[in-house]
């Protein structure tokens, strides 16, 4: 079975007049099916550019990119749009939910662009299944303003999963969340990964990266290190620890 992601000597150069900005410099990277990889790096390290390439939102200047066995390096705009819809699910820092539609309707949105189109009953069944997958089954009829930040992010994750993508891409998925909710969302990612879903996540937070199984650190457009997470955090354990700390704080001494 080929890797879900295979990058071979990927370069990305932007032009600003006569000046060339080398955002990514000859990156080789493989992500196998079922992995959970965190990509880290300081501002300007190339991690966001790399994520855009992985998500077929940008194309490399040089090199080859195989996504689930398909060479997407030189595909046209329409072909890339189809690949994004079929092969990739996106979760961003902002939830990007439509405020006037329910959770279940937000999840159905990607299926309106599928080819061939899905019928209404199938769209609703798949949306309900995705909502169950992220633990929000009873809240399908709620609007975003009736949901907490963590619940809105879970809806966004369900929307990313509804097309059954080969790869889930998460860009700073806890950036707008408090500490407790961030742990809950990372727990949701861990549960999805345990079910076999492949995840690549960009984050600047070291503790968030420790919920992944593998960490790739970038600097100056290159991969500096690529290794398994040694002291991996378990979201369920961290939530219990947080609750215990909160209880101790509230309990009066003496």
Q: SSE layout and pairings?
A:
Blueprint: E1 5-16, E2 19-31, E3 36-40, H1 47-54, E4 62-67, E5 70-71, H2 77-87, E6 88-91, H3 103-108, H4 120-133, H5 149-161, E7 167-171, H6 179-194, E8 199-202, H7 206-209, E9 214-219, E10 222-228, H8 235-250
Parallel strand pairs: 3-8, 3-9, 6-7, 7-8
Antiparallel strand pairs: 1-2, 1-4, 4-5, 9-10
Helix pairs in contact: 4-5, 5-6, 6-8
Question: What's this model, at a glance?
Answer:
The protein has helices spanning 47-54, 77-87, 103-108, 120-133, 149-161, 179-194, 206-209, 235-250; strands at residues 5-16, 19-31, 36-40, 62-67, 70-71, 88-91, 167-171, 199-202, 214-219, 222-228. By secondary structure, it is of the alpha/beta class.
Question: How would you characterize this protein structure?
Answer:
With 254 residues, the protein is an alpha/beta fold. The chain has one domain: 3-Layer(aba) Sandwich (Rossmann fold), CATH 3.40.50. Helix content is 35%, strand content 25%. It has eight helices and ten strands.
